[in-house]
What does this fold into?
Amino acid sequence: MFLFRSVSLYILFNSMLRMKICNEPTKDSCSCGSWLEHWEKHSKRPAWFCSEEGCINTNLVGAFVQKTNDDKNWFLLPLCHTHNTSKEELEITTSTILISVDKKNPCDERRLMSFFSFW
It folds into this structure.
């Protein structure tokens, strides 16, 4: 894996991101309107499809996920309702932007970092 850092933008070059859904409670709302709108605002992209590899569902929510290793950091990304309730490990598409969030105050803009992953 190669990591490039420029200001607060991190680019990860990796073949696939493996994530799991965060099961801990978080704030129910966001000042952006919804968690999906929060992701769109901070990623500066519209959410068109689910971030799960090969899924083209468009019934999206902003989902809190963690890497499957011991990393306890939380990230926000768009997932369909089906994958948002999955108990299985997720394979996230390599073009997905992960927004790093503080689990106690996810809408705190001072803690935002965007993560990009490419082939």
About this structure: The CA atoms of residues 75 and 101 lie 6 Å apart. The beta strands are 2-6, 9-13, 17-21, 60-67, 74-80, 90-92, 98-101, 113-118. Helices lie at 35-43, 81-84. Confidence is low (pLDDT under 50) at residues 1-14, 110-119.
